[in-house]
Amino acid sequence: CLMLSSSAVLGQQPFYWEQRTPLPAPGRWGAFNFEIDGYGYVAGGHDGSFYRSDFWRYDPLTDSWEQRASMPGGRRHGTSWSMNGKGYVTCGQSALTSYSNMLWEYDPTSDSWTVKAPMPGVPRYGTHGFAVGGYGYVGGGNYGADTGPYLNDMWRYDPASDQWTSINGIPGLARYGSTSFACG
Predict the structure, then answer these.
(1) CA angle, residues 156, 44, 18, in degrees to nearest 5
(2) Nearest 5°: CA angle at 26, between 25 and 28?
């Protein structure tokens, strides 16, 4: 339970949003994103007509975008994270009824994508995921219509061995389209 007192809220400095250079590509939803070495990355998504595979790097110091090597295939609504200087994209949807359990690793040094071991679970979209302690975690999602069926499993990816391990999922109901993040 979180409780804020009015004096703490009133004593905070205001926060302002600042307009930055927009992505120089079609707008999209369900895109993948991660951060490596202070750069923001955006990949894939759906622009209302097409599943995208284009990939962009944002430099906040120069407020500029640079197109990088495209993902091996277009897809939306999966999970992405970064760890150990590399970016990861997994799961997602590439056509109305085509779901994925593929894992791709992005190396910013060589500007290249490598196919890694696919997640052993059911191919899906709408997953939640994050990286903590040198491992990637992926769970939940959907492998059917918008109404399900939903999943409540959880998988841990070890980049050193390129292997997945099934672990306990988040307690409670199965979920799809959740948002997750890691701190520290």
Answers:
(1) 100
(2) 120
Q: Taking Cα atoms as reference points, which of 35, 43, 105, 111 lies closest to residue 77?
A: 43
- For residues 169 and 144, the answer to whether their CB atoms sit within 8 Å is no
Per-residue pLDDT of the chain (184 residues; tens, 9 = 90+): 333 333 445 567 888 899 999 999 999 999 999 999 999 999 999 999 999 999 999 999 999 999 999 999 999 999 999 999 999 999 999 987 799 999 999 999 999 999 999 999 899 999 999 999 999 999 999 998 888 899 999 999 999 999 999 999 888 888 878 888 777 6
Residue 94 tokens read as: 């590439």
Is the backbone of residue 120 left (phi > 0), alpha (psi -120 to 50) or beta?
alpha
Residue 150 has which token pair? 């939903």
Q: Where are the beta strands (DSSP E) in 96-153?
A: 98-107, 112-116, 128-132, 135-139, 142-145, 148-150
Q: Is the pTM of this model over 0.85?
A: yes
Q: Kindly state the greatest CA–CA separation across the chain.
A: 52
